[in-house]
């Protein structure tokens, strides 16, 4: 051991890009050794992104810039690396006397494997590895059936989740900034150096608007209104605390609280059933004979189906990286039921485009739409896009914003609803052996 090297512990930022109420960071700062905060742009992930114009990479970069500015107030700095995590930790090990690596837990299959890999290396190198629960209120096996098995239906899961919730689950974690290692400022790697472009996105620190949350259940289904919290991306990258969100939801609006519980439900489903990332949760649905017409998929993805609400949603997604939740359900149902295209095609397209893409929620919601998920809409529920338009955008405010030429396209619809519905019912019944 080189006694001349500085003795530090690492805090590894991942899905928790904030100083406020950060569990793992709080624990690291209490541990004794000076804390060196780091972030790794993981090239295993970056290299799989198909477009250099990726708002998510830009969002992370801007959030890290903000984080770095906050750390400078305490004489600290954020060290940002580009590469494979193991290579970065080996380099850190050569530069410092590493005591412990602290981080907050992630539950997606690839992240679980990554962390197990780094922990194995750390154990071999005599370095501690400690992870903490931060991005959820209840994780892994915190909410189980009486027989110890995970819930696969939302309603009983949510009932137990709410029964377990106590004030202590929502206490914020304090940050003792005196524990950071003092470091001079160093510029973050430029987006361009990583092969990415600056986008039209401007990072704004998330704000919890109590008025929006109080009215959430009344207006959330109307895409023309700015009546959702728009916190999906902040929750995805941890620029807002889940404890802060749940505290406000618990006090103000049960509908929004249920949405936050759905988020955790899908996370624990993917954790306990990692194969569901690519396979139908209900195996019988692997028997569905998807049509998978590539020209129709292209028309759907570009917003050229002839259905006003479907096309508006896809155009909003392509233009902004966002789509209203009600419209997400409509476009997903349309792809899987009207066009009989495999839910995995839609899931992959959303994974490429959504700013707030979260693997567990994306997989869970696509399987919900296709009827093949753990707690899915029944296969015979087939949204009528015209009826959805009448109910949720009757004045066409949303459609006119994102799909202004909708009237000219209606005459060339890709498929008629009644025909598509009958075809879907027949195909599903046949595939399920009903």
TrEMBL record:
Keywords: Chromophore, FAD, Flavoprotein. Pfam families: DNA_photolyase, FAD_binding_7. GO terms for molecular function: deoxyribodipyrimidine photo-lyase activity; DNA binding; FAD binding. Transmembrane segments: none annotated. Residues 7-137 form the Photolyase/cryptochrome alpha/beta domain. Its cofactor is FAD; (6R)-5,10-methylene-5,6,7,8-tetrahydrofolate. The record marks 290, 343, 366 as: Electron transfer via tryptophanyl radical. It comes from the Bacteria. Binds 1 FAD per subunit. GO terms for biological process: nucleobase-containing compound metabolic process; response to light stimulus; response to stress. Belongs to the DNA photolyase family. PANTHER family: CRYPTOCHROME, CRYPTOCHROME CIRCADIAN CLOCK 5 ISOFORM X1. This is Photolyase/cryptochrome alpha/beta domain-containing protein. It comes from Sphingobacterium paucimobilis HER1398.
């Amino acid at each position: 051991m080189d006694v001349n090297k500085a003795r530090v512990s690492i805090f590894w930022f991942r899905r928790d890009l904030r100083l406020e109420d950060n569990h793992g960071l709080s624990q690291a700062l209490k541990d004794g050794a000076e804390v060196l905060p780091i972030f790794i742009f993981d090239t295993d992930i970056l290299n799989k992104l198909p477009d250099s114009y990726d708002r998510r990479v830009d969002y992370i970069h801007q959030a890290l810039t903000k984080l770095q500015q906050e750390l400078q107030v305490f004489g600290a700095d954020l060290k940002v690396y580009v590469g494979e995590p193991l290579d970065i930790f080996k380099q850190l090990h050569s530069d410092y006397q590493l005591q412990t690596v602290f981080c907050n837990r992630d539950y997606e299959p690839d992240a679980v494997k990554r962390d197990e890999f780094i922990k194995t290396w750390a154990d071999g190198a005599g370095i501690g590895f400690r992870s903490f629960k931060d991005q959820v209120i209840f994780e892994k096996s915190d909410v189980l059936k009486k027989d110890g098995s995970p819930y696969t239906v939302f309603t009983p899961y949510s009932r137990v989740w709410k029964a377990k919730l106590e004030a202590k689950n929502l206490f914020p974690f304090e940050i003792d900034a005196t524990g950071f290692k003092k470091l001079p400022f160093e510029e973050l790697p430029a987006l361009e150096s990583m092969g990415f472009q600056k986008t039209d996105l401007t990072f704004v620190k998330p704000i919890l608007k109590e008025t929006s949350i109080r009215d959430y259940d009344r207006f959330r289904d109307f895409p023309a209104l700015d009546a959702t919290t728009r916190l999906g991306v902040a929750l995805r990258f941890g620029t807002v605390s889940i404890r802060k969100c749940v505290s406000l939801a618990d006090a103000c609006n049960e509908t929004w609280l249920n949405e936050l519980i759905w988020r955790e439900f899908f996370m624990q489903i993917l954790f306990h059933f990692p194969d569901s990332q690519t396979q139908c949760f209900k195996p019988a649905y692997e028997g569905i004979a998807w049509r998978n017409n590539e020209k129709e998929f292209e028309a759907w993805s570009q917003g050229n189906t002839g259905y006003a609400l479907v096309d508006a949603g896809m155009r909003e997604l392509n233009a902004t990286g966002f789509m209203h939740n009600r419209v997400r359900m409509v476009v997903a149902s349309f792809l899987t039921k009207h066009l009989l295209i495999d839910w995995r095609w839609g899931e992959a397209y959303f994974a490429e485009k959504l700013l707030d893409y979260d693997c567990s929620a994306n997989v869970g919601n696509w399987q919900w739409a296709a009827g093949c998920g753990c707690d899915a809409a029944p296969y015979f529920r087939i949204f009528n896009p015209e009826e959805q338009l009448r109910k949720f955008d009757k004045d066409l405010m949303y459609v006119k914003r994102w799909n202004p030429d909708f009237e000219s396209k209606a005459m060339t619809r890709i498929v008629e609803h009644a025909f598509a519905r009958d075809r879907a019912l027949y195909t599903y019944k046949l595939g399920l052996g009903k």
